[in-house]
Amino acid sequence: MTTSARPEPQDPNEAARAVRTEWRSRQLLTAAARLMERNGFHGVSMQALADEAAVSVGLIYRYFGNKDELLLAVIVNVLEAFAGQVPAAVEAAGDDPVEQVAAAFRAHCEVIDEHRHAAVLTYRESGSLSTEGRNKIKDMEIATSDPLRSAIRDGVAGGRFVDVDVELVTHDFLLMAHGWALKHWHLERTLQFHDYVAKQTALMLGALLAPEHRDDYRHLVAPT
């Protein structure tokens, strides 16, 4: 009788170092996003970043070779958050494509809300990246929108949504999610985050749902 091999126990010191490395990296990315949004990519020096993050310049160079690498890492960090949170939200929503669309949009908004500085920076400074860097984030952006795109397509195919241009509707949902970061200074005067998500969801689904299915989703198209 054979038994499966047990995984080797992780060295506690190695685990602690991994946690510290992850924490420090996120600390630097958060500080970089905040500072670059405020002063612009070209207006930020490594020393200024070190001051913002309350670390030494030498420590920054242990994680990032130069400022270009740091900018790319800030943007990739947001896209990786989409890649983790959006599919999980869609899966948790079950098999109904309408519920999946609502869940995917909320997850996109939640990532944007959590990374508002970095989201704004993506729009302002992605042109400063190398060609290779820009191509990387373009590919990642397409991949992270796939769960939303697939749910919209399934909703059309199943007759719950009217016939629409799936790519255009996906684009519109993503613009609204990013709009929370881009116009947050204005929107927060009258809307809290959950209100923004609920009202934008109702607006979009109200236009997408086939008339015979509207009453099935009143909790989404007419939120209380």
UniProtKB/TrEMBL annotation:
UniProt cross-references to Gene3D superfamilies, sorted A to Z: Homeodomain-like (1.10.10.60), Tetracycline Repressor, domain 2 (1.10.357.10)
Taxonomic placement: Bacteria, Bacillati, Actinomycetota, Actinomycetes, Pseudonocardiales
This protein's record includes keyword Transcription: yes
Pfam families associated with the record: TetR_C_24 (PF17932), TetR_N (PF00440)
InterPro entries to which the protein is assigned, alphabetical: DNA-bd_HTH_TetR-type_CS, Homeodomain-like_sf, HTH-type_TetR-like_transc_reg, HTH_TetR, KstR2_TetR_C, Tet_transcr_reg_TetR-rel_C_sf
Protein name: TetR family transcriptional regulator
One example GO MF annotation: DNA-binding transcription factor activity
DNA-binding span(s): 45-64
